[in-house]
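Give me the fold.
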Amino acid sequence: MKSYRFIISGRVQGVWYRKSVQGHAQRAGFSGFVRNLADGTVEAGVTCSAERLEEFMALLHRGSEASRVDTIAQYESIEIHQGPFEVR
């Protein structure tokens, strides 16, 4: 298991993006978080196996009906996420 951090840009604030990602991630059994950043982007974090990383990335791209994801930057993280996926 590894931890990852993502910065998502596009139309991702004020369009139910975080709540949608949270719902998708909880249903899929991921542990992590999603939160708005002051610059208009969204940050997400997850701890998962390498085999499930693509599945999580797909959830980030999916977002909500009103959202539009332009780019997702991916980084490795040292923060270990456990428990339910949350909106911070």
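The chain has a mean pLDDT of 97.
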